[in-house]
Amino acid sequence: YxxxxxxxxxxxxxxxxxxxxxxLPFNGLLGLLISYAAGAMLGGFxxxxxxxxxxxxLAIIVGIVLLLxxxxxxxxxxxxxxxxxxTTLLYIPYAWAGGWFGGGEKAGRS
Length: 110
Hints:
Blueprint lengths: L13 H10 L2 H25 L4 H22 L4 H21 L9
Helix pairs in contact: 2-3, 2-4, 3-4
């Protein structure tokens, strides 16, 4: 789903971005959700891998930071309600899962 030709990434027009998001079909928004979930999981994984202790806590902190930035994005650019709700609910669980896969479950046993 390419951006409009008139889109300037260095000086984005909020009205153009809003119109673009409203024109995206379900599959486009679903792809965006999948990328957000993958980013949260990868961020949690990396945080757990580089952390010395409290690995799951570090992964959850990554999820919280992503959640806050996601909320800021939702405040700036109107999205469909189902997308906004789903997005806010996915960051922390996916970051936690990434932390768990990254070895976070071992942190409590050290």
